[in-house]
Amino acid sequence: MNRIMQSALRLAGSSLALALAACGHGESAGLPLRVEISHVVGAAPLRLGDQYSTAAGDGWSAERLRYYLSNFRLRRVDGSWFANPQSADSSRGYFLVDEADAASKQFQFGPVPPGSYGGLEFLVGVDAARNGAGAQTGSLDPARGMFWTWNTGYIFFLFEGHSPQSGDAAHALTYHVGGGSGAPAHSVFLTFQSPLQITADSSAEVHLYADLARLFDGAHQLRPAALYSAMEPQAAAEVGDNSAGLFRIDHIHKLPKAALGPGPADGT
Amino acid sequence: MKRCLLPGVVLLLTLLAAAPWAYAYVRARATPRPYIPAGWPAPRYDFSGNPVSADGFALGRRLFYDSILSRDGSVSCGSCHQQFAAFAHLDHRVSHGIGGVNGKRNTPALFNLAWQPELMWDGSVHHLELQPVAPISNPVEMGGSLALAVDKLRRDPHYPALFERAFGSPGVDSQRLLRALAQFTGTLVSADSRYDRYVQGREPFTAQERQGLALFRQHCAACHTEPLFSEFSYRDDGLDAAPADAGRAAVSGLPQDRGTFRVPSLRNVALTAPYMHDGRYDSLEQVLDHYSSGIQASPTLDPRLRGGIPLDAAQRQALLAFLDTLTDDSFIHDRRFAETHD
What is the predicted ipTM? Predict the structure, then answer.
């Protein structure tokens, strides 16, 4: 009985908090924006274990691909921003994307106030404030394995695979990019081809493509013979730069209110 | 005989009625409250996000002394962090992990951790709550993982109820595990040595101890700064011309940090032998030998140590006498921090 009362009170409390939050920010009334992510290599979907080759002719395959996306913001056509609300006591708004977990590749944030938006910004990784905020839960639970223990901080971007050219004895490729000693997460801004209209009863799904070919042929050319293990901040810097260059908006669907519903993972 | 019955019953009922309050009083007395000793700076660890409670502290203490956190259930935090040694590991040069394997660095003493900006010899951990993740998952320490430890605690017959009592709702997760441990480790405050009572004017020093303090302030206090007896920088104290352990450089990636290590606090230093990051010296006499005549030059050597710190025999004795005054007997005998079997 006591427990039922407690849960009832807690439920009442959270509904009240929600109601207050909704009242507090007049503009937060709106629909969530959905994001879907596809990992590709050039034009083809990425398949874990398949062999690919870089522009320089190096072979590579991927076995694990996991990374954080966070701090989503939308830029209105008038230049002002809508930032996805985050809360210090939950991991809401921090998304752990894992190629091996289909559910992790679709998430939503918001509610986004109705308006006309020209672009989308996010971090590949975790912001410095949260990275230094102590034990976290949910997607940021360090038990999820995206956390360095020898140089405390989140692994922002993790790519593990193989390359025949890798200088490692087992030809492994191990790229772990992280924010151990204050290295900031890379910010990515993507412009919508035409302004995205969010209304009281219509939102959208932004379909992001992350092209893994650009991990090797990006801002820096990565050659597995020389760079096969990147974990220390210095060695990982080039991989980190390239990880921010993987993303593009492939297309955007309009989503009527009815299609959104209570929606998939919001990172909590 | 019959006349005694009524008062006896009343007394018994009164005692029974008072028992919960008495129990709560004793529990509260057994729980340290975060406080700032006079003259100390504000702590780095913010307890407002993790308020210390009787149940949270007791859970943290139980976890600290429970080998359930190691992969094979063989070692606990308390295996290497012994209260009588100010939570260092007496007579062990380097840490000892599961399966008899050795680590590469000396087990540091644990006290006043809430004031430390970073933890570990190389400062690799920047938050008190996250420190236990390192030993739990280090193959040469507890050899497991945070996920494994949480899983074992969830399946344990006792812990789920203890977590619920400590945090007010059911659920065992890594955040609660780490916060409970921080309630224990963060309240390990050592601030009641003879030195403390001397600077507060409550206890005299001998002439030799006063001479030792003056020498200390002249030669050592730039790095081992009062009142915490460290300013928590990373320095190469001339142990090796070519350091084998990269030290801070492994974290920062900076070549100038090679072979540098966190300046340890000297509180309780007489209890925490062996000394230095690799436990190479068994006694404080050897440490003073090193600083007076054993400094090895290297590109990263701390400039303050160039040429060493010359000390004559009387000065060494005075310095050693002063270092002894940093021993905090009430801390190492504080029953709140001792292993219990509740």
Answer: 0.85
